[in-house]
Amino acid sequence: MHASAIKKGCYYLIPGLVFAIILAYVGRFGFLYAGADLQFHASRIFEFYQHIKNGNLIPVISTFSANQMGSIVPTMYPSFPVYIGAVLQFIFPPVTAMYVLMWVQLMTQFSIAKWVSKELGLSLTESTMAAFIYTMATPTLSQVIQQWLFGEVWAMSFMPLVLLGLIRLAKTTTDNVVKLDKKTISLLVIGFTLVILSHVLSFAIVAGYTAIFTLFLLIFRKNRWNVLANLSVAAVITILMSLVFLIPFIIAMLGNTLATPAATELTIWAAPDWHEFVKATFTIAADARFKTNTVGIIAFLAIFGVVLTWRKQDRFTKIATLVSVAVIFSGSSYVWNYLYDTKLGVIQFPHRVFIIAIFLLSVSAILAIRNVIGKRWLQQTIYIGLALFSFAFAVFNIKYGFVDRVNALAVQTDYKSTAKHPVSYAPMANFKVNNDDFENLMGYWNTYGAFDYLPENVDFNKSLQKKAIVQNHELLQTKATSEPNGLTYQAKLAKNTKTTIPMVGYQSLNYEITDQNNHQYQYKINKNKQLVIKTTNHQVSELTVHAKTPVTTYVAWVISLATGAGLIIYIIWDKRRKA
Hints:
By secondary structure, the chain is an alpha+beta fold. It is built from 19 helices and 15 strands. The strands form four sheets. Strands 7-6-10-14-13 form a five-stranded antiparallel sheet.
């Protein structure tokens, strides 16, 4: 028993060490390097860290990041992985914590894939190898390390749970008995909930594919009512567990006219064609690029391996390969070339669905070898060879596609941005930041994602840019201090004067504005969506503005936590009952 436990532990320890070695290689000089979304998500994590540090568990607006304008970003983006990142900031230095966060995500992705693979019939060794090559695929690592598509990669980690739930659902349609399958429902609920609490568009995509799969079952399978019954129960529980995000998000969308992020135009980054797909898969030259718009070399070769040995493959391997090909095609420009002019065009980067194909093809690669090779020792030798190849290929691409380039071009952000010493920073610019300089990232005005979900048509005037109070059309010298869900402004204010505060206001939120004497002010939101008050005939030198956490948000938290706790208790009770 003891030896067996050690053996099982090694199946996690060895991949964990490999992931740690890769991340240590990337950040070996103690730097965190620019990714497409890194600065944005680093700001989100810093925001939540500061809120928790100051005793507030529910950030409503951004007051420590996103230019300290009171942006509603914390409400509009799912925050489950952000909380994990914020907690790690208490344990490790900031940049180190970000690398630990990447490691935790890779281990989560690996562990879920390993468990799901085992549930699909793979042995302990086979499931470990399938999960490893899936996690080590170049597009997967690129999204974690280079692109820093934070919410997306966490959402992707949970997609195999949804996939397993749908496979189990298909198996419950073989007879005419309508019966709720508890494991199927639990998988769908946990998978869908974690996806939506990580990334909204990923949830929309998975929900869309689930709808297509459900339509297939309703047309071609016998027990349609069983499908609808299980999915309906799973949907209700998922909604209840997701209210913690959905209610604040929906109220904010309905209560305001917001500047939503624009969809990316149709490019190779948005939906690749076959030429770009193949090129990104097999690039091993000096100009290698760490691409996301592919499925990786092993997954790609698995398609041909299964096709060439088609007669020897079992039914599941064949279906998984065909589904993977269909998924790849559905995320290509050949489909999205027409969809980008429709309402579906708001779905950015449809190639993110490739993660489903990567997982299925990683499993298919292992099953294909098992079905063709009869000798176990030879099977395991090939498995190990695939694992070593995936590691070597990933390191090669990381080195030539990312590390060498950023080390040569990245500019260190070793000072805070000021009016006298500004930083010219574009969304895709190269920068590097270490533990000492991490907080400098929060001081840049033009940053990726900082202007998401602001009230529509806001004019970024000097008041907002300088965080300065305005009276009589003049900017006052103002000192702004961040607080959880608020800011304190210190300035010499004139009496009985209309005063514009450098914070945007949202109709869906209630604000509390007080001065140093705790006098509370009524406010309005002007044409530029800034908060405006009128000072009294008393001397005012300090104003504190707080966005109140809505009661509906607290209710949503209670419902979601109670539902989640109930589900966990039921799963544990049911497992013990069957033991």
